[in-house]
Amino acid sequence: MIPDDLDTIVGRLAERFSAQRGALLPLLHAIQEEVGWVPDAATPLGARALNLSRAEVHGVVTFYHDFRREPAGRHVVKLCLAEACKARGVGAIEAALADRLGVGIDKTRADGQVSFEAVYCLGLCATGPNALVDDRPVSRLDARKVDRIVAQVSA
Amino acid sequence: MTRAYISCDMASVALGADDIAEALTAAGCTVIRTGARGLFAIEPLVEIETTDGARIAYGPVEPEDVPAILDDTHPNRIGDLATLPFFAKQQRFTFARCGITDPLSMADYTAHDGWKGLAAARALPPQAVVDAVKASGLRGRGGAGFPTGIKWQTVLDAASPEKFIVCNADEGDSGTFADRMLMEGDPYCLLEGMAIAGHAVGASHGYIYVRSEYPFAIRALNAAIERAGPILAPFTVEVRVGAGAYVCGEETALLESIEGKRGQVRAKPPLPAIQGLFGQPTVINNVLSLAAIPFILAEGPERYAEVGFSRSRGTMPVQLAGNVKNGGLFEIGFGITLGELVNDIGGGTESGRPVRAVQVGGPLGAYFPPSMFDLAFDYEAFAAAGGLIGHAGITVFDDTVDMAAMARFAMEFCAVESCGKCTPCRIGSTRGVETLDRIIGDRIKGAAQREQALEAMPQMRNAKVKHRSVDEEIGVLRDLCETMKFGSLCALGGFTPYPVLSALDHFPEDFGGARALPQAAE
Amino acid sequence: MGWIGEIDLGTKPMPVTGPLVSLTIDGQPVDVPAGTSIMRAAALMGTNIPKLCATDTLESFGSCRICLVEIDGRAGYPASCTTPVTPGMVVRTQTDKLAKLRKGVMELYISDHPLDCLTCSANGDCELQDQAGAVGLRDVRYGYDGANHLDAAKDESNPYFTFDPAKCIVCSRCVRACDEVQGTLALTVDGRGFSSHIAASQDEDFLSSECVSCGACVQACPTSALIEKEVIKVGTPDKAVITTCAYCGVGCTFRAEMRGEQLVRMVPWKDGKANRGHSCVKGRFAWGYANHKERILNPMIRASVHEPWREVSWEEAIAHTASEFRRIQSTYGTRAVGGITSSRCTNEETFLVQKLIRQGFGNNNVDTCARVCHSPTGYGLKTTFGTSAGTQDFDSVQHSDVILVIGANPTDGHPVFASRMKRRLRQGAKLIVIDPRRTDLVRSPHIEAAHHLSLRPGTNVAVLTAMAHVIVTEGLFDEAYIRERCDWDEYEDWAAFVSEDHRSPEASAEITGVDPDELRKAARLYATGGNGAIYYGLGVTEHSQGSSTVMAIANLAMATGNVGREGVGVNPLRGQNNVQGACDMGSFPHEFSGYRHVSDPEARAMFEDAWGVPLDDEPGLRIPNMLDAATDGAFKALFIQGEDILQSDPNTAHVAAGLAAMECVVVQDLFLNETANYAHVFLPGSTFLEKDGTFTNAERRIQRVRKVMSPLNGFADWEIVQMVAQAMGLGWNYTHPSEIMDEIAALTPSFANVHYDALEEHGSLQWPATAAAPLGTPTMHLDGFVRGKGRFVVTDYVATDEKTGPRFPLLLTTGRILSHYNVGAQTRRTDNVAWHPEDLLEIHPHDAENRGLHDGQWVSLRSRAGETTLRALVTERVAPGVVYTTFHHPTTQANVITTDFSDWATNCPEYKVTAVQVSPSNGPSDWQESYEAQAKRSRRIEPRLEPAE
């Protein structure tokens, strides 16, 4: 799962941000984009590249919900559970998706096919319930769109 | 060739705008992607340009509707959008271009009065620019409502070789999307505002901190920065992407995050204006505050200040969200009442059921019942009513809402998003969820088990089990809210009590159903 | 004695820069410096606002929210720790509303805290407990079965302290202490919100994390989450004594905290002027050697080193010693005996040993371990500036803009000062490192040297001269300063010398291996970057050109106007706790106390008057000369107090031969050290915990050492020396070390005002403390150099005779590591071995690959002097062609390898440059095995027969 050339990858990405101040978040984003997650093994490499302590990098990785310390499922469904979507009935959608995907919120299905995650607001608050399916936004979720999502992530 | 306008706003795309754009292109149209007009009930929305340059709107539409649109037979024909009451009633200062222009077209931006504010500002000495902002009466649109000009004055007065402009685009409040719409629909406007701020206070570099949940805005800004670089120069701007932390919308946590650290809130003082990003004097303003600046400089502060109400001057892009018929962005001068916004503009609930509650100002805002709908949209009026305008998001709920569950959600959200620095927020939010669980009775079964477990212990056989009534539990909750409200370091812990207490105060009937619980042995 | 509780004022003091700010707190007026927090202002007038996350050693943080106050005209309840006072402010610290808020917050804390106060190791010494009482918490209405951290696993990996997350209140004081005070940044908060918890590095155990065990986190913790294992074992202390650390030359002040007669912990003292409340793993924790089972508590004698030791009474041991020295002197002459004073003993004890030699032995054959470390400092700085000591106090570094570190590794050797330096560097001061190794200062979290000149060992003078070349030829020198303060003619001679083309960076690069561009930039930075301060260590002195290098440093400082104010100067980082003091006290064969030559009739007369005997006007023998004389048969007896020359001095075989040739070697020490293998009399020594006295640190600061417990061996070292003196017929009659200091003050002009009552009153004094400067002298040469005009000395680079060649192609340089101290006699007998159980040979990957070596492998290390074996550590910290090791472990005996080349002026050995070869090996060398066997034989002890009554 962890790429063999993680040190090369981190070194190359760190180089890209070397001129930036406060480059840790951009670096972690870049690692996650390239590797898919931020393995703990990347922490000492990032720390060395940016001349930070391992503790500092670890503290940052664990603070931000975006950074995954475990690989995600092959597909990721993020469902907004914030107030505006609640007002538009996301409760029923959450139940339907959990049932149809076979995995509860904030979990990855055992076969690694799909991660089902909560997100708090996508800024589409007049047209909820909303989701990001593999980073594509979907609004006005209803039974028909749940079907489509399930089909999409089962592929 | 027919020119068709369709929004590339994330909300429009989430409703299928890309597919329609594709269908229009396939049908031979020249498709121009614009920002969103702001009324999402009619999205996906297509506007077809007539030979005389007018635009005829159709919406909502589906890809298969393209032929009907092109031969003008579609039943959802709206015609000239400007005549719709939703648009006719607005005072679009900040969002004047949004939905009209191609967001990344420099020609469009220039043609629609772009860069006029920057040119005007650069013709003035910094102090004169700051004076103009003061005269406009502009107050921080992020929620706190602090006068923008005074903040700028502090940074201008701070002697330092290095200063920064930071745009807070970490729009995390549920029910708000104005920042996102502006960044996607008119990014140059924000960049222009930042460059004016840079000139005004003597800062040469700016950061826009955008939440990672806004990928469209991030793309738009990066593209805009690249194209506008020569005009902005010597001012430079960089986009920094958040990483899933609501608390980074708090200005000091945001600064920490840009510095590459955990997004923990700093104690104030020192104010960021004196010691902000990387320890240097920093203007940190919300997207809407900075985006209001070009208008103020281009049209003059008086023009901006002449609308508004009491000490709240200018316009506010109000966002109608949740279960509302005409959801979207509505820019209007301060002073309009809550009822007008929800019922007249918003058209009541989308579900058609009665409005039971509206939450104003995001997850930290208070819930109001319709009985308070005569409240004027104004910073002071809302504060007096135990609420806040915040980022001007209004989330509408119909009568199916369970207000105890919403109060619990407020605590849960705080627990999920707490940075963990101060105790009232770090521990209090979790205790709040637990206390509300006891009140709601979700955990009655758990409590019963606990009781049994205690009873099973020999030394407890004869112990008297004291039961705590719902009223007593509510007393604990109110005390906790007080501790959080007055004890927390920042607004996350400090304002979470607003939705909780307002739910308790205005909807007490939703909290009364739980049975008395035994109190844990001490 | 008694419990010296430290008052915590909550936030840091503010300098007085203008008029005081007047405000009212609880109706009482108070005036404080601008910038002071409300919390501190209240504490200063005696009002303690409840607090948990605030402590006056850290920046205010504002997280615990129990220090809230009310301020007239201000909404809400600001935290008093983060709110500075303003003129006319009216503050209330106690109202019903505040009481309720504080109680509410405390209720939250306790809802996630074990209710085990009675069995908690911090019971009675816990801020959480105190504050819960102070806010009057009586009830936790949330119950105790909500979410909590009570089952979190304890981390006991660190030998000295435990981390129990269940007791943690996540105030981040530990994290902040690690960041702000220590500068290692080994701790963080993992996660956020309710799940926030303190983590070492990547949430691993402390021992395997980046933690260097300085103890700052333990010190900062307000609960028992981080607590010393000794407190868990013994209980909380009930009394404390302020004393001075006996490890390195930083001279940290500690509170030795006791429970009865038992030492429980050493806690760095906030008012200590050298350490300002900080500590390192050695001083803070590694004091267990004081009670180690190998400590020798009874005197012992033997006729020959082949015999086992025989335990004897003190009377017998003293009488035997005195009679042996008298016998040998009558047989072989007055000058056939000598002594070595210890840089680990007190000033008073050192003074007595040299007095014993000069007054009792009647010669000047006294030397000290400074011979092998900082003797070139004494020579070089005296020659150029007029004083044999560093020019600044440690606080000075806070005012430096450019810090040049040459031949020093402060993060390992002087860790507490290194933390101060790193703090300044994090604030933006620039750093230049001149060192063959990539030390931690070159690059470690948030620290990065602007220039690292990685020179070939032995070429310091060439590098510094090349820097001088740049400064002179590019016109970067401070002419006004030089003309005013220095001898201009001498400057011109020197300037002409350094300006010669072949001394340019480009020309000397072939010798030094330093990139000329980098060197030029470094020189420009030092000359023009503001306040430039030079810190150096044994990497400067322990060379054949040690004294030249010290003078080259002084030249640079004078040429750029960097002597004589705060933030600048020339600062030797002294190795041992009292090496400065040992030098001051007349431990050298040519100098009385205060660096006055024995041939100076005026000085000699002073001592002759006081001591009532004529004194030798000829300088005596230095250590290497004593050893040479011994092998030649002319030197027969040596009194060695607290030094292990066999392990610490170069060319072990030569030292062993010298010792073996003597008839009476007296060793006074805590343990049967390596030198004792060649001794005839062993006098048990006392630890610094067992006596009164003073140490003088690297900043010339004289600080009290106070008796914490009775000497296990029966006597303090000064008493033992006095007994020897009395047995030799000298009429000494000191009843307390303060009387010795009075004599020192009377006989040493620079110590004229140093008396114990003054030390009690002021905490410490930096010499010179004279009538002109009764409170001492933090910064030297303020209005001019002590010698008058600063003297530029031409320092020609002369290559060492130690050359690499086909047989010995690599250069060995030696040094120290954080967890160990000197020959390791103390630290090896503590749990510090957890970090560094053996000496390792650092070798560059290229050199390792060429020799087929891999990490962790046994290797043989050979020089023309000898051979040893140890394990290899393959690392890029050393440059290709250079290898490095430490000398902490006698099983390695690194000094078997080092040669007897030494500094031309002072004989300081050239430890730092030895040509060696490295090859694979299967295990210990023959020499190591035979040494091991011989040491074992030599350490046999026959138990003492109880005398029949």
TrEMBL record, chain B:
Entry's Gene Ontology molecular function annotations: 4 iron, 4 sulfur cluster binding; FMN binding; metal ion binding; NADH dehydrogenase (ubiquinone) activity
| Residues in coiled coil | none
Ranges for domain NADH-ubiquinone oxidoreductase 51kDa subunit iron-sulphur binding come to 404-449
Required co-factor(s) are: FMN
Alphabetic keyword roster:
4Fe-4S, Iron, Iron-sulfur, Metal-binding
Pfam families cross-referenced by the UniProt entry: Complex1_51K (PF01512), NADH_4Fe-4S (PF10589)
Entry-linked SMART domains: NADH_4Fe-4S
> Superkingdom, according to UniProt?
Bacteria
Which protein is depicted? Formate dehydrogenase
What is the native source organism of this protein?
Sphingomonas montanisoli
TrEMBL record, chain C:
**4Fe-4S Mo/W bis-MGD-type domain residues:** 238-294
The record's keywords, sorted A to Z, are: 2Fe-2S, 4Fe-4S, Iron, Iron-sulfur, Metal-binding, Oxidoreductase, Repeat
Q: Which Pfam families match?
A: Fer2_4 (PF13510), Fer4_7 (PF12838), Molybdop_Fe4S4 (PF04879), Molybdopterin (PF00384), Molydop_binding (PF01568), NADH-G_4Fe-4S_3 (PF10588)
GO MF terms listed in the record are: 2 iron, 2 sulfur cluster binding; 4 iron, 4 sulfur cluster binding; formate dehydrogenase (NAD+) activity; metal ion binding; molybdopterin cofactor binding; NADH dehydrogenase activity
- Which residues does the annotated region (Disordered) include? 917-949
PANTHER family in the cross-refs: FORMATE DEHYDROGENASE H, RESPIRATORY NITRATE REDUCTASE
> What residues does the 4Fe-4S ferredoxin-type domain cover?
159-190, 202-231
**What residue spans carry the Basic and acidic residues bias annotation?**
940-949
Q: Where is the composition biased (Polar residues)?
A: 917-928
Q: Name one GO cellular component term.
A: oxidoreductase complex
Q: Which organism is it from?
A: Sphingomonas montanisoli
Q: Report what the protein is called.
A: Formate dehydrogenase subunit alpha
Keyword Metal-binding on this protein?
yes
User: Of which family is this protein a member?
Assistant: Belongs to the complex I 75 kDa subunit family.
Show where the 2Fe-2S ferredoxin-type domain sits.
19-97
Classify the source by domain of life: Bacteria
Q: Is-annotated flag, keyword 4Fe-4S? A: yes
- GO biological process entries: formate metabolic process; respiratory electron transport chain
Where the record annotates domain 4Fe-4S His(Cys)3-ligated-type, the positions are 97-136
